[in-house]
Amino acid sequence: MALERTFSIIKPDATKRNLTGAITAKFEEAGLRVVASKRIHLTKAQAGVFYAVHKERPFYDELCEFMSSEPIVVQVLEGENAIAKNREVMGATNPAEAADGTIRKEFALSIGENSVHGSDAPETAKEEIAYFFSGLELVG
Ligand code: DAT
Ligand code: MG
Predict the structure, then answer these.
(1) Is residue 53 part of a domain?
(2) ipTM surpasses cut 0.95
(3) For the chain, what is the domain count?
(4) Proximal ligand: closest to the CA of 124
(5) Was 11 annotated as part of a binding site?
(6) How far is the CA of 139 from the centre of ligand 1 (A)?
(7) Pocket of ligand 1, candidates 8, 11, 50, 59: which has the most ligand atoms within 8 Å of its Cβ, to mutate?
């Protein structure tokens, strides 16, 4: 299979606890290469656009509040089967259900403050990368 790219966020609960390096190490250990990375602080409106797919869900406001509460680190990860591999390394959305050794099992605080985001499909990966990065910032 050809190299694939996926979009990742190290969320506010993790940047606040200085876990950027530990989480990035998990990606690299899994064979994913960081081809773009930057630390940013979203406005609530920007977080709302990013998570628009969830706007009818009861947790949407809380989610946007949380995602704009502290800086985040946005990254593009590249590797064989990168989308699925990243989801595997992340673990289940709810840390109580996440497998041993996954990022969410080790670091997440709750289902809401769950340390990482990862794209769920090729189309969303493409859209999410384009929301945060220009082509010139992707260095494979
Ligand atoms: P994932 O981040 O695993 O792709 P998702 O796309 O279903 O999960 O939800 C996006 C984020 O919304 C998730 O990482 C945390 C938050 N969230 C999801 N379900 C929630 C719930 N039941 N209560 C609070 N926050 C929730
Ligand atoms: Mg999702």
Answers:
(1) no
(2) yes
(3) 1
(4) 2
(5) yes
(6) 30
(7) 59
**Marked catalytic residue, from 5, 26, 85, 117:** 117
Domain that includes residue 92, residue range: 3-39+73-137
User: How much is the pTM?
Assistant: 0.98
Whole-number Å distance between alpha carbons of 68 and 42? 5
**Mean pLDDT on 125-134:** 98
Pocket test for ligand 1, best of 7, 55, 110, 111 (most atoms within 8 A of CB): 111
The pLDDT-based confidence of 106 (bands split at 50, 70, 90) is very high
Residue 121 resides in a domain: yes
Residues contacting residue 29 through CB under 8 Å, at least 6 positions apart: none
Which of 56, 75, 61, 58 lies closest to 14, judged by CA?
75
Reported as a single tens digit per residue, the pLDDT across 61-70 is 999 999 999 9
Over 90: is that where the pLDDT of 121 sits?
A: yes
CATH code, domain carrying 126: 3.30.70.141
**Residue 2 confidence (pLDDT):** 86
Two tokens, residue 65:
């509040």
- Give the DSSP per-residue string, 58-102: TTHHHHHHHHTSS-EEEEEEEEETHHHHHHHHH--SSGGGPPTTS
